[in-house]
């Protein structure tokens, strides 16, 4: 069965590169570029994993994550967060919001692929 | 003060000449013990004895009597007051300055440098934390770098990728490289505004404040009963900045009408201004007086006055700096400033002496009041604004026991056990 990843990122060229990498790995990749309705999109798409940017138009990725974790069925969904701010304070905020993995830009493709593989493997075992 | 150092200079010169105290005393016909009192500044010296001593020491008498610059003494006092964990011998300060003018100059220079650097830290800390433009610019640069890195890595992988994907990635790479060049240039231009040039960042309030500063916070056209249109809003390129400036200038014109300049000058005597007395004399409210005092021509008040206007959220709506006075422009200021405490007690005039914690320990006489803006309809929630006039206190070494302690912002405030603290300070002791 195809694994589905939802990539919520407003930089189209980052989206394109990650889509290419993950498609090649066998993932079904869906994308979205807005924060405002991101929770609804996740609920509707039912992905196996979410890659979420922090600075999104309309609503920050941090708020999206907090709202997402309010839904009981989404508490265990693996969420990889991408951000340009890598300060410990931001990391703490992300952890409190319920992030599964936190990654700062600019990241390498290998880092993204490893994180996605690890998160998916952990989720499959639990 | 200058006379008191002559003895120290005589001793210094004598030692440089290699003369013993008794030897010099004998040559000028006084006892060694009397010269000792002179050298320790316990006896005044002048006239023939001074000329004789100068002749023996082969220096001009004026070199022995010439005083140390007051600013040097003042700078050394400030350095001593700011020292952490080190108590300086303030009583012997003038003697130190007299005997070691070079070292004194170095110390004063270092202290000034520390103060300047501290101001830079304050500015950058404030800007990095709260400047949305900077945060957005950094995000833009890093996101573009992420896209380039990711795309370039795909293209650099061994093996062929489909032509369609390859072309698309080449196009993306080109776009992102262009974008990165532009956003990097914009970021550097934004950060590189420390030379005091006009602010081109497009933040309306910053542009308005720069405009007021260029005009010296005074508009002769409006003093003479002129109209708003008489003021050339040069340099205010955005309509937002124009609107903000026009609003402030309308207030300025109304204040000038209510408190004509010549009458204000007559009412201000040699002592520090009394805003409440001025309000009564001109039959105006205190807010009008505080604004008016801040916008008088340079030299009308003994010292340049600062002014801050904020709304009930603490957002600064206007900021006129004063020597030594620092308040973060983008929020998270110390809530202990009378500007903010006035919001707790609307319409109650507040006068408070404050000392701003930090190396300069600058003191200010602050006058503040919070008042509601005119209601536009019955039953509307009142919208409060607070105004604070800041008058620097000249003598910075006077005791600060009666002055309330305020900081700039928690991040760079050294005060411990402060009930108003929001976050730990980044300043380690001795910074």
Write a structural description.
- The complex is a heterodimer of chains A (126) and B (431).
- Chain A has five helices and five strands.
- By secondary structure, chain A is of the alpha/beta class.
- The radius of gyration of chain A is 13 Å and the shape is globular.
- Chain A has one domain (3-125): Rossmann fold, CATH 3.40.50.2300.
- Chain B is of the alpha+beta class.
- Among the domains of chain B are: 3-99, Orthogonal Bundle (434 Repressor (Amino-terminal Domain)); 131-191; 302-373 and 381-431, Beta-Lactamase (2-Layer Sandwich), CATH 3.30.450.
- Chain B is built from 17 helices and six strands.
- Chain B is extended.
- Chain B starts with 5 loop residues before the first helix and ends in a 25-residue tail after the last strand.
- The chains are: A alpha/beta (126), B alpha+beta (431).
- The A-B interface holds A 11, 13-14, 16-18, 20-21, 55, 82, 84-85, 105-109, 112 and B 135-136, 138-139, 142-151, 153-154, 165, 168-169, 172, 175-176.
How far the N terminus sits from the C terminus of chain B, by CA atoms, comes to 33 Å
Query: What is the fold-level CATH name, i.e. the topology of chain A?
Result: Rossmann fold
Low-confidence stretches of chain B: 194-201
**Main sheet characteristics of chain B:** 6 strands, mixed
Estimated radius of gyration of chain A = 13 Å
Distance between the termini of chain A: 18 Å
- Compressed to H and E, one letter per element, the order of chain B equals HHHHHHHHHHHHHHHHEEHEEEE
What structural class is derived from the secondary structure elements of chain A?
Answer: alpha/beta
Mean pLDDT of chain B comes to 81
Q: Order the strands across the largest sheet of chain A as they lie in space.
A: 2-1-3-4-5
Low-confidence stretches of chain A: none
User: Can you tell me the CATH class of the domain at 302-373 and 381-431 in chain B?
Assistant: Alpha Beta
Counted up, domains of chain A total 1
Helix content of chain B: 40-55%
Structural class of chain B: alpha+beta
Keywords (chain A): DNA-binding, Phosphoprotein, Transcription, Transcription regulation, Two-component regulatory system
Domain Response regulatory (chain A): 4-120
Pfam families (chain A): Response_reg
Modified residues (4-aspartylphosphate) (chain A): 53
